[in-house]
Amino acid sequence: MAHDENFKDTSGFISIVMGLIVLVSMSALPATIGWFQFFNG
Question: Distance between CA 28 and CA 37 in Å, rounded?
Fold first, then answer.
């Protein structure tokens, strides 16, 4: 099995980015629901 010196494991970076997206979307969810009810109400 060959070892590639140029290989970069980006799975950690991707998981951090996905975690931040989930965190922001969960905190923005009540505001989004509020705006939706305001414009439909």
Answer: 14
